[in-house]
């Protein structure tokens, strides 16, 4: 209630990117005050054996995670671990640090409960992320979301993903191959059947050399056709991938209520306009794989019911991002309460 009535209106007076850094700095500062971590945990965490999920060989304390993009540099893993998340996905990280696209590059569409971003994989690079993750004190499950540098041509993209895999192998619990962001030129071309199969096969070959291989997942766009989704399923099964994250942001602007000056901004759209499409993709993948491929559902989760819809459609786990910004940190606990009440 405090978030909706006081904190959110104040944050929404700031530019979206400025608000993000204010939240990050405030969280970092508050968690250093004695007793504050315990207060946050009592407010937002819900521990219940009915929430435990074992997915792709990992036991999650609850099925609600923080999607990639919120903590791009793994700077707040310990802080976010006190907000009730069952897991946190960091990144997208690229081998070398890069500034991303020019600002402004993040836009709120309050009338639609949405965001448009064209951040462009702004991050501090693999070395910085690895150093932070090696020092973390919380035991929260962490996924590493891997991308390629903007200057790396697609024909050399495999090298960037392999560098990320090797660098983070000892400090994350699972990996995500991100070839579905619309904000790095030509990146989505890597979702095509042949380059995708080649990339994933190479990563799995590296994974097989490890004494204890780690789950590798593929994050896909919501804008794929059914034929393309069929190709994804075929490749995931052929390369023995651990699962799929459905979905990333969309290029569609269909049905938006916000003023055209906002809706015409380039970039990926997230939030409520994505709710239905991402659930449709989850359902399609689940049905056409006979439920054999684990799916993390993400896209437009603004309520417990939104999350339950994705779980009913076939997701094993869910992630929040834009809904977390619009609804506040209580969303995680509300979803977990809804899961218990539903018996899912």
Automatic annotation (TrEMBL):
Q: What is the UniProt remark on how the cofactor binds and its stoichiometry?
A: Binds 1 FMN per subunit.
Keywords, ordered alphabetically: Cell membrane, Flavoprotein, FMN, Membrane, Oxidoreductase, Pyrimidine biosynthesis
Task: Give the Dihydroorotate dehydrogenase catalytic domain ranges.
Answer: 51-340
A GO CC annotation recorded here is: plasma membrane
In the record, what terms sit under GO molecular function? Answer: dihydroorotate dehydrogenase (quinone) activity
Keyword Nuclease belongs to the record: no
Q: Where in the cell is it found?
A: Cell membrane; Membrane
What is this enzyme's catalytic activity, as reactions?
Answer: (S)-dihydroorotate + a quinone = orotate + a quinol
Binding positions for substrate per the UniProt entry: 72, 117-121, 178, 183, 248-249
Against Pfam families, the record matches this protein to:
DHO_dh
- Cofactor (UniProt): FMN
Q: Report the EC code(s) recorded for this entry.
A: 1.3.5.2
What domain of life is recorded for the organism?
Bacteria
Catalytic positions are: 181
Positions bound to FMN: 68-72, 92, 145, 178, 219, 247, 271, 300, 321-322
Question: Membrane topology for this entry?
Answer: Peripheral membrane protein
The GO annotation for biological process reads:
'de novo' pyrimidine nucleobase biosynthetic process; 'de novo' UMP biosynthetic process
The pathway noted for it is: Pyrimidine metabolism; UMP biosynthesis via de novo pathway; orotate from (S)-dihydroorotate (quinone route): step 1/1
Q: How does it assemble?
A: Monomer.
Q: What does this protein do?
A: Catalyzes the conversion of dihydroorotate to orotate with quinone as electron acceptor.
Task: Provide the family line.
Answer: Belongs to the dihydroorotate dehydrogenase family. Type 2 subfamily.
Tell me the protein's name.
Dihydroorotate dehydrogenase (quinone)
Specify the species: Aquirufa nivalisilvae
């Amino acid at each position: 209630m405090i978030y909706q009535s006081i904190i959110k209106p104040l944050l929404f007076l700031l530019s979206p990117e400025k608000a993000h850094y204010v939240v990050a700095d405030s969280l970092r500062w508050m968690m250093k005050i004695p007793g504050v971590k315990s207060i946050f945990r009592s407010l937002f965490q819900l521990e219940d054996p009915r929430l435990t999920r074992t997915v792709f060989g990992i036991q999650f304390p609850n099925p609600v995670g923080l999607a990639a993009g919120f903590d791009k540099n793994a700077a707040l893993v310990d802080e976010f671990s006190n907000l009730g998340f069952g897991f946190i996905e960091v990144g997208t990280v690229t081998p070398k640090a890069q500034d991303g696209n020019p600002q402004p590059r993040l836009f709120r569409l309050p009338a639609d409960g949405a965001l448009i971003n064209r951040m462009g994989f702004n991050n501090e690079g693999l070395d910085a992320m690895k150093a932070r993750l090696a020092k973390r004190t919380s035991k929260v499950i962490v996924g590493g979301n891997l991308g390629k540098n903007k200057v790396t041509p697609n024909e050399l993209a495999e090298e960037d993903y392999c560098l990320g895999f090797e660098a983070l192998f000892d400090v994350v619990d699972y990996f995500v191959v991100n070839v579905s962001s619309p904000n790095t030129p030509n990146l989505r071309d890597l979702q095509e059947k042949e380059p995708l199969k080649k990339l994933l096969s190479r990563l799995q070959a590296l994974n097989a050399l490890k004494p204890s291989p780690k789950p590798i997942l593929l994050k896909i766009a919501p804008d794929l056709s059914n034929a393309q989704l069929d190709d994804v399923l075929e490749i995931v099964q052929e390369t023995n991938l651990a699962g799929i994250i459905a979905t990333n942001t969309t290029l569609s602007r269909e049905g938006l209520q916000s003023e055209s000056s906002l809706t015409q901004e380039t970039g990926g759209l997230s939030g409520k306009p994505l709710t239905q499409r991402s659930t449709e993709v989850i359902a399609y993948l689940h049905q056409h794989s006979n439920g054999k491929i684990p799916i993390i559902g993400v896209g437009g989760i603004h309520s417990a019911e939104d999350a339950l819809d994705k779980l009913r459609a076939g997701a094993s786990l869910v992630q929040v991002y834009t809904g977390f910004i619009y609804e506040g940190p209580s969303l995680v606990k509300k979803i977990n309460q809804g899961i218990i009440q539903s018996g899912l």
